[in-house]
Amino acid sequence: MSAEIAQEQNGSPVIDIRDLHTRYGNAIVHDNVNLSVQAGEIFSLVGGSGCGKSTLLRTIIMLLRPASGSIRVFGQEVVGLGYEQALKLRRRWGVMFERGALFSSLTVIENVAMVLREHTKLSSRFINEIATLKISLVGLPIDAGSKYPSELSGGMRKRAALARAIALDPELLLLDEPTAGLDPLSASGIDELVQNLRDSLGLTIMMVTHDLDLLWRLADRVAVLDGGKILGIGTMDELSRSGHPLIREYFYGPRGRAARDQKWKKK
Amino acid sequence: MIAGQIALLDIQPETANANDAVKLYCSGIWTVHGIAQLERQLNEMIWPVAASLVINGSAISALDTSGAWLLHRMANTIEQKGISVRITGLRPEFSSLLGLVSACAVLPPKPTHPKEGIMARIGRNAWFGIESIMGLFAFVGESAIAMMRLAIQPRHIRWRTIFHNIQIAGFEALPIVGLLSFLMGVVIAYQGADQLQRFGANIFIADLVGLTMLRELSPLLTAIIIAGRSGSAYAAQIATMKVTEEIDALRTVGVSQQELLVAPKILALAIVLPLLTVYADVSGVLGGMIMASSRLDVSFDVFIDRLEVAISLSSFLTGIVKAPVFALIIALVGCYQGFQVSGSADSVGRQTTLSVVQSIFLVIVADALFSVVFNWLNI
């Protein structure tokens, strides 16, 4: 598989998942999942609703414990990690949740500044400046900073969540549905932003998405998940030539075709 | 932090020729974790006086947006002093990052807190008070209309929800109500025992315990426990539903929120609170009885005989009559405060607190009014 070839070329992967099994009660969520994400790569997880994409993301960031298997992030085993080491690891990644998960009692700027205040010794004036910079980086108008999350629209909330995720300039960014619920203009704004961040900061990005446009435009590699198993990993081109019926259905449904055609037109 | 892992800045003025540019050498790790020290130093930095200045960034080994912002801000500060600044030697990826940051550069808006005078604040609070009272009246009115609709069309009554509420607010509250009123009976008998013994009036312990518990304490105590237990739960439940837009969803599918959420709670509490009050009467008197037999040698038989004489039916009823009114207050205030929530998690906490404080306050006010009315009627 192409994943293994890439791994040999680039050295140690940022995320390396081996033989992962996860279960909720009796329901098996992941059945022997193997995948690795290379440094500087935009890696995407796709699959139908309820196939365990978000669960996989939550397992990687230590919100859920797997039943068995190993997950290494930056070469560090995250299953059963102690408090201090977990904290060190958590400073190196930023997470954006599907529904934003902004702290509702803080303004947007306080949401971003809080992370900086918690983990750095910078002066509070400088922290405010950086928080403002991040808010403007994600394309929010400057007066949005002093608003509370409940006063923002869904798309703005998502951008604010992204601003908080990149507050500490993490090396790894995990995005759960970054463009879901956004208008096409905002969604392509997020596309550009993610690409910009990757190019200028050398971020590694792992995202869960249903957005086929986003996949064609950004994803270096994509893993298709179904029924707790990985059906295939590869670039969008490789996957769209794959013979697996479920993958074909995913990419050659009416929406899949439209997104793909658009890609060819642009080329 | 170890040297070499932080951001560094060296100034090398070229003394040979006054026209030459002053050079600043940046080195080290210009990242959010590395720049803390330098950032504080820069605030007190005195910049050399020169016509132009070159910032050399060739030795910067890592740069992120925070570091780039510091670099950008530093260059800006120097430029504002009328010195021309050039940044050289940055790696290509770093200079594109610097470009991105300077393109997005905005200064945080000055916090504008218009000073509010004391009159303005009094006015705002008064207006807020009037609004919340009017809101409560409107809410009571809507609930009354919903109750009347239910009375006309009883098939709309949600019995399952009512029974569920009865179980949670009533049955599950039995242990705590029983224990507290038992203890209250013990305390009253204990306090009264000394006084009564001094006059040799031991037997009147039954009057003391019976009257205080039945007329005043058990309705009040039960109502306060239920306000803290169920009133707060009602507020929190409706508040959370409001935040997650479930209330809006209910409206759009044409289900009346009053019928589904408020009426069953009012009905359930109106059934449960009188029953709990009777139960509290019994366990309070039991507590007093046990205390009387151990401290005053008034046996159970004697105590109960005396109780029959001391307590008239009207004494019992004056206590019970209050309970449905208290139930109405608790359910209405709890639900009303739940509906007042807006957006944040903070607001859920605030309204839940308010629901308990207000319902206990109103229960005690209502109790006082009852006393006045009963006094008029000579009951």
Notes on the protein architecture:
With 267 residues, chain A is of the alpha/beta class. In chain A, 43% of the residues lie in helices and 22% in strands. Chain A contains 11 helices and 10 strands. Chain A has helices at residues 2-10, 53-60, 83-91, 108-119, 124-137, 154-165, 184-201, 212-218, 236-240, 245-252, 254-266, and strands at residues 15-24, 27-37, 42-46, 68-73, 76-77, 93-96, 172-176, 204-208, 221-226, 229-234. The longest helix of chain A is centred in the last third of the chain and has 18 residues, at 184-201. Chain A is globular, with a radius of gyration of 19 Å. Chain B has 379 residues and is an alpha/beta fold. Chain B folds into 2 domains: 10-103, STAS domain (Transcription Regulator spoIIAA); 134-376, no CATH class. Helices cover 69% and strands 8% of the residues of chain B. Chain B is built from 12 helices and 4 strands. Chain B has helices at 36-43, 65-80, 92-103, 118-152, 159-169, 174-198, 205-243, 246-252, 257-295, 300-310, 313-339, 345-376; strands spanning 7-12, 22-30, 52-63, 84-88. A 4-stranded mixed sheet of chain B has the order 1-2-3-4. The longest helix of chain B is centred in the middle third of the chain and has 39 residues, at 205-243. Chain B starts with 6 loop residues before the first strand and ends with a helix. The mean pLDDT of chain B is 86. The chains are: A alpha/beta (267), B alpha/beta (379). The A-B interface holds A 91, 103-105, 109, 116, 119-123, 126, 128-134, 136-137, 142-143, 145-146, 148-151, 166, 168-169, 196, 199-202 and B 31-33, 35-36, 39-40, 43, 64-66, 69-70, 73, 93, 96-97, 100-101, 104-109, 111, 342-346.
